[in-house]
Each structure stands twice: as C-alpha cells, then as structure tokens.
Amino acid sequence: MVYVLRLGHRPQRDKRVTTHVALTARALGARGIAIWRPDAGIEESVRKATQSFGGDFEVRSLKEWRPFLKGWSGPRVHLTMYGLPLEEGMEALKQLVSEGGPGESGSQEPLVVVGAEKVPPFVFQTCEVNLSAGNQPHSEVAALALFLDRYFEGRAHHRNFADARLRITPSAKGKRVEDRKDVGTH
Amino acid sequence: MVYVLRLGHRPQRDKRVTTHVALTARALGARGIAIWRPDAGIEESVRKATQSFGGDFEVRSLKEWRPFLKGWSGPRVHLTMYGLPLEEGMEALKQLVSEGGPGESGSQEPLVVVGAEKVPPFVFQTCEVNLSAGNQPHSEVAALALFLDRYFEGRAHHRNFADARLRITPSAKGKRVEDRKDVGTH
After folding, report:
1. pLDDT in tens, A30-77
2. What are phi and psi of B39, to 5 degrees?
C-alpha cells in the first residue's frame, strides 16, 4: 500500500492539477490521498470517480499537514527534482519499507509527498528519502505516475474493481464502456 | 524522436495542466510540442525553462490541428483510457515506427496526441494506435509520462544538456543547483 500527501494546494489556482494528482494516485494503485490546503470540491470530484469506477480510494483534506507528515508511521518519500535519481532513491525506499518505518507501529506503508511550486525545507528533512523522477523541471503529476509505476513494478496501471459501475474495455478505435447499472450504487 | 500534439487546450482554464504536459514532454525526451488552441503565455513559459535548463525543445501553437495531425508523416498514437493496453499498444506502435509512417516521406517519428476532456472521433480514427496508459480515469500528464518512459525504455528521465545554464545535482536532503552564468544566454 502507498498513501499520497499533496502539499501546497491552492484552491482555485491548483484545482485541476491537484485533481490530476489525486486521479493518478487512484489509477496507479495508491490507497488514498490527503490534501492540504482543504478543498471540498476536489474531495467531491475524486469521490465521484471512485463511485463510478469502483474501489475504495480514500480522499481527505488536512487543516494542518506538519503533524500528519511527522506522525506518519511508515517511511516517507518526497518527490522532488532535487532528489536522488529514481533507481537509487527507490532502492533506499524499498530497504526502509522492508525494515518497517520509523514510527512506533513501524508501518510498511510509505507516504509519498508531492508539493506544488515551493516546498519548505521541513519536508526535505522529515522525509527519509528525497527522490527525483527526473532532474529537469516537469510536473508532480508525471513524477507521481513514474514513481507509482516503478514502485508497483508496472503492475498497477490496468486495474478492475469488482464494484465498478463503469468499466472500460480496451479498444483499438473507439470508446467501449460497460455501464453496469445494478452495481456501484453505494 | 517523438513529437507531442496537445489538443483541446483552453487558455486560462487549462493553462497549468498544459504547462505540465509540455514540461513533461521536454523532461522525458520529446523533441517538441504543438498546442491547440494557441497560447502565447505557455509557449513563453516553456521556452524560459528551456533557456535555463538547456536543450532545443520546440514549442509552437496551432491555429488548426486537423491538417497537422492528418499531415504527420510518421505513425500517430493517441493516448486515451479507452485504448489498447500499454504493452500491446506500444508493441503495435514500435512495429509501425520500424516500418516508417504512412506519409510520403515515411518518417519514423511518432506523433503522440494527448487531449483535454473531450476528444473528437476524428482523432481515434486518424491515429494508427489508440493506447491506454491505464484504464481508470487519470491524467494526460500521467499518461504522457508513462508513455515516454516506456517508449524510451526508462532512459530519458535523467538528462543533461550541454548548454544548460542551471543544472541540478542529485541530493539526499536539499537543493543543489549549479548556476553556470557563462552559458545558456541564447
């Protein structure tokens, strides 16, 4: 399991990018996402996707993020273009995961931190691993996608949920969506 | 080489997401991007990144995208969650690349098409390959990142450009940026 912490979200300005971060987290195998600053609109739109496409992806907003980051009982990894190269950082992280995290309960679930434009030094220092999914300026959405893909060793990108109302069937030339109206009405 | 076509961009609303698309294209090895609808602000901000971080990534706006897509002389691949699974679509694409594209010049450079919310059937039909980087709703930024990573077999995410003014040195706990003021003043 993997959990995502999205920092520095500015409602309005970052609405769409943070939605992309959350949907990418869900699509590529994360268990849930915590968002700071709070944004009920994004929570709602991500929940709607989950209601239609299934699974139990968790989305929550945080009023304060420092205690959440500090109190996480598994290893913490911060995605930043300033960090260690992907392979090296991933190896360090997997070692920490196998040992169990620094918290009392020693959880093996990593917290993946993605920031918006500026990330305070506290994040670099608190996270056990600072990992770069590329040393050129790019995108926290891209960084999260590459991270999750590598972390789950390429197994997470085609997923089906038993309780999905909408299901997509791969197609060479169009859109094939199965609408199972009898399920997913939770 | 790979070129990217970003469709359905709505200036204002999609400004940030399209910037993420363009920076991801540059960071992960594409040669350039064409954007429709035109947006001089995005062109400018992507050029600024290239001026600082080096390379010769091309960015342009299109007034009309259909002739551009139709006239592309290499294979065309559309990233969509409705498409063929990543591995299967990638195999089909690489076959087309090795044969040379459908145009008169038979170029081997694929055009990767990423849309915003709604993509017209013309795109599904014109592109030789519709490829899904995941069958759950996610993000065109994530899809492009996964596509380029697979296409370049994981080699593209740490790049250095000879003419870079700013260079990032990987670091375990902070930011290390080399500012080479004598270069990159083009």
Report:
1. 999 999 999 999 999 999 999 999 999 999 999 999 999 999 999 999
2. -155, 100
Mean pLDDT, residues B103-111 taken together: 80
Computed over its alpha carbons, how large is the radius of gyration of chain B? 17
Domains of chain A and CATH, by start: 3-179 (3.40.1280.10)
In 3D space, the residue among A150, A151, A149 whose CA is nearest the CA of residue A109 turns out to be: A151
Record the tokens describing residue B174, joined without a space: 């902070």
Task: Tell me how many helices (H) and strands (E) chain B has.
Answer: 6, 8
**For the packed helices B86-99 and B140-151, what is the interaxial angle rounded to 10 degrees?**
60
The interface pTM score, or ipTM, of the predicted complex is 0.93
Touching B: A residues 20-49, CB under 8 Å = 20-21, 23-24, 26-28, 49
Closest residue in A to B141 (Cα) is A142
Query: What is the rounded distance in angstroms from the CA atom of residue B123 to the CA atom of residue B7?
Result: 10
Residue from B77, B87, B117, B139 to probe the interface with A (highest A Cβ count within 10 Å): B139
- Per-residue pLDDT at B100: 79
Mention every residue, 6+ apart, whose C-beta is less than 8 A from residue B49.
Answer: A137, B23, B26
